[in-house]
Amino acid sequence: MKFTGTGEYVATEDLTVAVNAAVALERPLLVKGEPGTGKTELARQVAGALGLPLIEWSVKSTTRAQQGLYEYDAVSRLRDSQLGDARVNDVANYIRKGKLWEAFEADGKVVLLIDEVDKADIEFPNDLLQELDRMEFHVYETGATVRARHRPIVIITSNNEKELPDAFLRRCFFHYIRFPDPETMKRIVEVHHPGIKPALLETALTQFYELREQPGLKKKPSTSEVLDWLKLLLAEDMEPADLRRDGPDALPQLHGALLKNEQDVHLFERLAFLARRQR
Known about the structure:
This protein is an alpha/beta fold. The chain has helices spanning 13-25, 39-50, 65-69, 74-83, 99-105, 123-127, 129-134, 166-170, 182-192, 198-212, 223-235, 262-277; strands at 29-33, 54-58, 70-72, 95-97, 111-115, 136-139, 144-147, 153-158, 173-177.
């Protein structure tokens, strides 16, 4: 069971090594990187390439670890008891299975994505240590123990918004997805926009990387954003000459696809103004 990338996802050699190492070690793969570098998509592509079902658990700021195991609906049980419903005699009727339970009871191996684990409270990853390590958990309301029939491939993503506990990190195989260099980016673009004119691509990517390297930028444009930008350039049937700027500090054409806050737009406007004054 080896992952080598797919026709829809350009995986670098170090990324494929990380995925296969995590599978071999039967450890969760913790993937970090800038937003838009393909962390979530990696799990989907791994599942597709290996022919396995994908179970996605999208973590939010209010998400608790217990929700991934199960939730006991005491309110519904109380209401049914007041109505005389016979279902109240079996507490299992009020147990809602979480994503980890789904993965554990699956008939075959699955890929379990725990997406953006750093969004939740700092205790969230600690609360999952035993379940991810032993691949089992106890249901206190019924007295049952749920054990994984087949150990899932667990992929955990993080945008590095907060530090994760050391005890959690020890149990993971770690990989940081570096931002693609220009050659890798060209391969990614070819997957999404095949046949794009080399001159247009070269000019566009030169401007894109100049934009990313601008000091003081609050949010650097990501891979997904440059793909959107190129889609717009193609839709407008632009040529390399149409992308000409009045210096590297000037805003590029259709910059709204790349710059996503007013501070960064104002930064380039100020730089362009200062450049004109110095002439």
